[in-house]
Here is the input.
Amino acid sequence: QVQLVESGGGLVQPGGSLRLSCAASGLTFSSYWMYWVRQAPGRELEWVSRINMRGDSTYYVESVKGRFTISRDNDKKTLYLQTNSVKAYDTAVYFCSVLIPPSRFFGQGTQVTVFS
Here is the structure.
């Protein structure tokens, strides 16, 4: 079955960086758009970024543009999110996700906490 396993979260100071990873299995990884979403306490789920199958088309929510970079390695079946210049607002659980119709799959998430 489809499995998505995120890693790389942790504690980081404002202005710092983290690289999140999502290891995928149980799917033909290179055939699907991949997504990063985040959930912060008291806030709605936010779709942070997405990347197409080849990795040459990306989208970012306005709040992370210029700071976050999504990428993928299809050979390693891994999705990445490089988070730079983090802010307190970026504190959240970050999930990777894939839509394989009719189902959408999420990993278990990785916590990112920005503290000063």
